[in-house]
Amino acid sequence: MKQTLPLDETILQLSKILEYEKEQLLSGSYSQLTKISNTKIYHLKLLDAHISSLNNNAALGQFTADINLVKKLAIENETLLQSAKYGVTAAQARIAAIKNAESMVGTYTQDGDKLRTQDAAVTRRKIA
Q1: Mean pLDDT for each 10-residue chunk of the chain (128 residues)?
Q2: Which residues have CB under 8 Å from 10's CB, separation 6+?
Q3: pTM, whole model, 2 decimals?
Q4: Domain range spanning residue 60?
Q5: Rounded to whole angstroms, how far apart are CA atoms 18 and 21?
Q6: How many domains does the chain have?
Q7: Is residue 121 part of a domain?
């Protein structure tokens, strides 16, 4: 991949992207996550190309702290993404349970056996 940004600018842009992603995750605004992900991938490829082109560890050493910050931000965002996924999955399960409960409303026979009706609905009416 042709490097179009210097290493320090690549790291700065990647940090900004990760901060923006964190803001979006914390606010529950998931609509931009695909675009953010594509931008992250592009900048990570640039970073990888920069690191691969360095001849020695001394040249990379001056950027170690910045790269570690990017790594820390990425790990934090991964945790937020996993939490968001868990929340969405839990919400879907709850919706399914509510739908199932509505379709499986039952009554009891005179003998005490449960009688299920598939298309029954429950309504509540407040009295007094």
Answers
A1: 80 96 93 94 92 75 88 96 92 86 65 66 61
A2: 3, 43, 46, 47, 50
A3: 0.70
A4: 7-116
A5: 5
A6: 1
A7: no
